[in-house]
Amino acid sequence: MANIQSQIKRNRQNEKRRLRNRDFRGSARTAVKGALAAMTEGQDSPAAVAAAIVALDKAARKGAIHHRNAARRKSRLIKRLAALGQRPVSMPAQPAAEVPSAAESKSMPVAKSGKRPAAAAEPKVKPEARKAAPKTAAKKVPAKKTTKK
Fold first, then answer.
1. What predicted TM-score, i.e. pTM, was given to this entire model?
2. pLDDT, tens digit, for every residue of 116-148?
3. 92 phi and psi, to 5 degrees?
């Protein structure tokens, strides 16, 4: 048992955080298990995966799990759902890249890189150079005088 006041307080804080984190981790774990069960049973798995993603994001936001841990678990869920040929509800379908027609492409100026239109390219503005502080001469420390005994 701690007998230092600051450590006693730290122990109380740690216990509160442990209980709070346990709730967020447990709800994320339950949601992931529910999503996996929905996928195996053929139920409404996209909605279950979306709910699991929300629970994982919330747990990561609150600090109950690491954000990369949440990303890894979400990725695994989405890959498994994609293997079933489905898409999660929270992720909209990506539209195919629009290709301009021949008439439109001639009228649009293109930069040398071919990535952005020339009109949209803005010149880079250099930030004002920082004024260097005047250098101060290093103080010379006189050598210690040694006395012979």
1. 0.56
2. 555 555 556 555 555 555 556 666 666 777 777
3. -70, 155
